[in-house]
Specification:
alpha/beta, eight-stranded parallel barrel, 13 helices
């Protein structure tokens, strides 16, 4: 109470324009394990404001996305088993400390997104479970009120008081702490009555269907309230099924979210990158298939905490080959991701090539930055963010089919992909080209929409990033030679295991 905010300019700017047409590159953070203090203690909200915020701002990210900060009893739940929905966790200080953290983030130009968990709640006796001795907040029938995967209770979304409490909690974070967005966890588990249940373990609707209509109605109302009362904020769904219209407006029959995590892209692209390059020709469509549905929702491309736990290793650890090839693969992959339609999310540590799996109980491996390949990867992520923000062709039409055109989609024998990213009529287009084999491709002809000079604005094989230094000497000149259905073309050198960007720059 009585906190004095200094972020009026941030809130005013946030309310301007369409979030789908703005750059969004989120750095996902677990506050308890980004860094630790002496003796392994947690850093305070103020210490995190001094260290985390400038680090993320310097890397060019637009948003911080925090794993849940609602009070929770078990560190090992990472915050996804909240007990005190209206309390920022005391692990890092008091509520005013959290408010100062958000205010400092806004002053640094960063939005703050919170992971929010309305899908389920723990059955600890000091929580909401059996609150008055019986099922008050949870659904009375365990076939709808108990989650077998997580041994948690499920809210009775059809009960007005429960739905109102959850909606009030969402608005609380936006009202009292000026949060810029909510990423809703485990939406798929809310939408289906038979989610992760065998026959006989779930209670169908009277017509036998499996959609949780109370949860659908709650999510629509939640999104209407957020967008109706806090212009410029966003909601993001972690939803892993083919449910239609997750990010379509509620008035049009959708769920009303602003964005949806693209889990299909994440699974396919990581599976492709884990293959030895000699085998990638047989899996070429893993990277092209996503464009068949890339604009069916407003997507975020997530390389999240879920991809670096439970035996999955790190992103760098999934890359095949010797050390040089592993880093080259990671750099090429990030280059592919940042030029692919969709907003971006990267979990902490992956920007510098964390080698071990994420451990919630310890700090990241910061000593790795003593080694050049890790510093190179971090430098690349910073440059990718700066280009993504500076060039409208790379972000303004992330959610529109008119912002993308394949140039080379079928060169499976050489594992080469080339595509154009397009902004509005006056925005210079960007050509992105990826080579996912360790073989350089000199003299590779690609079609282009305009003759003239195309400047090489990013090359993941550059010396600066730890690459071999092959490139196009700063630019190529396209001639009026038709190719790939386009009126002009140029011959380029595609470095090994690399992604390069060319910006149309006739002047």
């Amino acid at each position: 109470a009585g906190f004095v905010w200094s972020d009026a300019a941030h809130l005013a700017a946030r309310a301007e324009g369409d979030p789908r047409r703005k750059p969004m590159a989120a750095y996902e953070v677990h506050l308890g394990s980004w860094q630790r203090g002496e003796g392994g203690r947690f850093l305070s909200y103020d210490e995190l404001a001094d260290t985390l915020i400038p680090y993320v701002a310097e890397l060019g990210f637009t948003h911080l996305e925090l794993l849940p900060v609602s009070e929770h009893p078990l560190d090992a739940s990472w915050g996804y088993q909240p007990i005190g929905l209206f309390a920022p966790t005391a692990r890092f200080g008091d509520p005013a400390g959290f408010a100062r953290f958000v205010d400092r983030a806004h002053a640094a130009g960063l939005g703050v997104i919170l992971d929010w968990v309305p899908a389920h709640f723990p059955t600890d006796p000091h929580g909401l479970a059996a609150f008055d001795g019986g099922p008050l907040y949870e659904h009375a029938d365990p076939r709808r009120g108990f989650h077998p995967d997580w041994n948690t209770a499920i809210y009775d979304f059809g009960r007005r008081e429960v739905a109102n409490m959850l909606a009030a909690n969402a608005l609380y974070w936006l009202d009292r702490f000026h949060i810029d967005g909510l990423r809703v966890d485990a939406v798929a588990s809310m939408l289906y009555l038979d989610y992760s249940r065998r026959a006989g373990e779930w209670l169908p609707n009277p017509d036998g269907s499996n959609d949780n209509r109370d949860a659908v109605a709650f999510l629509r109302r939640f999104n209407e309230l957020v967008y109706g009362t806090h212009p410029g904020t966003v909601t993001i769904a972690e939803e892993s099924t083919a449910w239609s219209g997750v990010s379509a407006p509620a008035y049009a029959g959708g769920l009303g979210f602003g964005f949806k995590w693209n889990m299909g892209w994440m699974n396919d692209s990581l599976d492709y990158m884990s293959k030895d390059p000699v085998h990638r020709r047989w899996h070429h469509d893993k990277l092209t298939f996503g464009l068949l549905y890339a604009f069916s929702e407003n997507f975020v491309l997530p390389l999240s905490h879920d991809e670096v736990v439970h035996g999955k290793g790190s992103i760098l650890g999934r890359m095949p080959g010797d050390e040089w090839q592993r880093f080259a693969n990671a750099r090429a992959y990030y280059g592919f991701m940042w030029a692919h339609p969709g907003k971006k999310l990267l979990f902490m540590g992956q920007e510098f090539g964390q080698t071990r799996e994420w451990n919630f109980d310890a700090a990241l491996e910061w000593w790795l930055l003593d080694h050049a390949p890790h510093r190179g990867l971090k430098a690349l992520v910073g440059d990718l963010n700066r280009l993504y923000r500076a060039l409208p062709a790379l972000h303004a039409r992330d959610c529109e089919a008119a912002g993308f055109r394949w140039v080379v989609a079928d060169d499976r024998d050489q594992s080469v992909y080339a595509w154009l990213r397009l902004g509005d009529r006056h925005d210079p287009p960007v050509l992105a080209v990826s080579n996912f084999t360790p073989v350089p491709r000199p003299g590779y002809r690609v079609g282009l929409p305009f003759a003239g000079r195309w400047r090489e604005v990013l090359n993941t094989d550059a010396d600066l990033y730890g690459g071999s230094g092959l490139g196009n000497q700063g630019a190529v000149v396209a001639a009026a030679v038709p190719s790939h259905g386009l009126p002009a073309s140029a011959e380029i050198l595609i470095p090994p295991l690399a992604t390069v960007y060319f910006l149309y720059d006739p002047d």
